[in-house]
Amino acid sequence: MTYMKVAISNLRRNPVRSVLTGLSLAVSAATLCVVLSLDRGYTRAVTEELVAKTGVHMYITKEGCPIEAASVIAQGGLSPLYVAEDMTHKVSAVPEVDVVLPFKLFAITTEDGSRTDIFMGITKEIEKIKPEWRYEKGGWFTSDTSVILGGEMARIENLGIGDKMYSEHFDREFVVAGILPRYYSQDDGTFFIPLKTAQELVDRQGKLSAIAIKLKDISTLDATRNQIRASMPPDYYVLGSKELGEGILEFFGSTRVVLYIMAGVAILISIFSIVNTMLMAVLERRREIAYLKCVGAGAGDLLHLISLETLVICITASAAGAITGSFISPIFGRIMRRYLIAFVPSGSISQPDFAIALVSFIICLVVGVACSLYPAFRASRIVPMEVLRNE
Amino acid sequence: MNDQTALKLEKATKFYHRGTETVHAVDNISLAIENGDYCTIVGPSGSGKTTLMNLMGCLDHPTSGKVWVNGKEIERADEKVLTRMRQTSIGFVFQQFFLIPTLTVLENVQLPSLFARKAATEHAKELLTLVGLANRLDHLPGQLSGGEMQRVAIARSLVNSPPIVLADEPTGNLDSRNAEMIMGLFDKLHESGMTIVVVTHNEHLAGKGGKTIAIEDGKITN
Ligand SMILES: Nc1ncnc2c1ncn2[C@@H]1O[C@H](COP(=O)(O)OP(=O)(O)OP(=O)(O)O)[C@@H](O)[C@H]1O
Ligand SMILES: [Mg+2]
């Protein structure tokens, strides 16, 4: 005979209720686990993407540009801010610089707003700067009207090498020169066109969205950045790719707040649910509890017994929730990828792991234990006289 | 004060307030029940039998007067002492059985030993043999008849080996055949030397005990 046995047997009396109580906490634990996985996953994926996958060590933009890059893509449009193309030569002259990629980025939304196409005007330097750049089919631009399609675009448009692609917005025909593999990143949905063509299409000759720079040696990053910054006009920005990542993550901040509020609400609801059910479970058994006092149960025994009951539910539910959350969070990662507009990294957005599951488990467990205190306290205060109460 | 006194009340009163009216549930009662006595408390409904038993069993404090259990005066307030007293000195049997439906018969009987921090599996089995349920150890209360449940409840009240058993209408929920059996059980416990106090308004059962206390309106009438 142990307290645990009695507690479990009490839970078995109304199994549906016990399971439902546990379920609310399990949902909280799962939500928390998903949210933590998404938060960390997105942060990591963005940083990884910007630093490791793009091969870019540094960007030169106009003030406000890192955020502009994202908002252009979000809203479809063209920023009035630009980097003068002359700067490319200035930067190329710096000895520490390996590759310089000037580019023009813009987004065109169809009139009915159903679709936004991203265009990126580039030069051949992209082949040297992006470590993973290769062609699934075809190759580099062969003329001013050439286009290289992101993997996803080629699939959606059902286009092959040499096929013609008509853009209604520009009243222009492009010829597919190359098709990229799918990188599961923003590149998949992008139309790459020659820089000159891009500038001409939006009437921005000699103007760039930004210049991407790869250094010969990453350890010279800080020194080179200072050097380049000094040589630029004061309203130019020289950003390490890490800082750009931080800019994008600022965008994610509001999404993150919503996610955490969601997890908080789930926890709050389960607090009410647990306190309510356990209190009911105590009150409907008050005569029986009073009887236990008659046979010698002290206040401490009842505190022990009732909080054990809650604890059993909470441990089981928090663990089940945290494990479930770890398994389902990639699904949410995929859903979020579909609706994220700020910046979609190619790495997994959701990165659950043991530490996150453990944190979710512990938080929910602590909440559960806290919830058990009041009902247990009420049980301990029942007086033995109650045994004779007439119902 | 006699060593032989199991329960003693001295000018004990218990008043309840119902609106502006004061109910004298127990009104200035003095009595002594010696060790090994079999005492039956009888009286009409509302006469104060249960209230009197509560005072004897340390479930309630008297409004005034004094109570001794096993020669020890029950002070007010100290809940720990009362808990200890209920663990070791008194077994309670009520009209309702209060068995935990998801614990087996044997586990139900063992339950009080958990609170007294004693292992009592063997003793619980002996007690179930005593009440004639040795073959039902693993049954759940739902599989038992009312009479059998009350026998389990009696075995449970005895598991911490209290010298005194207080029973309030122990046969109130039972038919006459089962009632007989329960009362027979109390006789058996009495013969083994225990102090038994049974509250009942069934005059039929009352005669059997050695000593009868009749009360009415909170006062002893015999
Ligand atoms: N908690 C209480 N508050 C107010 N009055 C009470 C309370 N408990 C008992 N009484 C009153 O005290 C009197 C004695 O009650 P008690 O329960 O002791 O009677 P009883 O002899 O056990 O009756 P029964 O045979 O019906 O069980 C009754 O008038 C009852 O209404
Ligand atoms: Mg009564």
What percentage of residues of chain B falls in helices of 4 or more residues?
A: 25-40%
- Portion of residues within helices of chain A: 55-70%
- Number of helical segments with 4 or more residues of chain A: 12
Strands of the widest sheet of chain B, in order across it, are 6-7-8-3-9-10
Which pair of protein chains has the largest interface, and what are the residue counts? A-B, 26 and 35 residues
How many DSSP-defined strands of chain B? 10
Number of strands of chain A: 12
Oligomeric category: heterodimer
- Gyration radius of chain B, rounded: 17 Å
Instruction: Indicate the proportion of strand residues of chain A.
Output: 15-25%
Number of helices of chain B: 7
Bound molecules: adenosine-5'-triphosphate, magnesium ion
Write the layout of secondary structure elements.
The complex is a heterodimer of chains A (391) and B (222).
Chain A lengths: L2 H11 L1 H39 L4 E5 L2 H11 L7 E2 L2 H6 L4 E13 L6 E7 L3 H4 L7 E2 L7 E4 L1 H7 L6 E4 L4 E8 L10 E5 H7 L5 E2 L1 E6 L5 H11 L4 E5 H43 L2 H9 L4 H41 L14 H28 L10
Helix pairs in contact in A: 1-11, 2-9, 2-11, 2-12, 9-12, 11-12
Chain B lengths: L4 E14 L2 E14 L3 E5 L6 H8 L7 E6 L2 E2 L5 H10 L1 E4 L11 H11 L5 H10 L15 H13 L5 E5 L7 H16 L3 E6 L2 H4 L4 E6 L2 E2 L2
The structure holds adenosine-5'-triphosphate and magnesium ion.
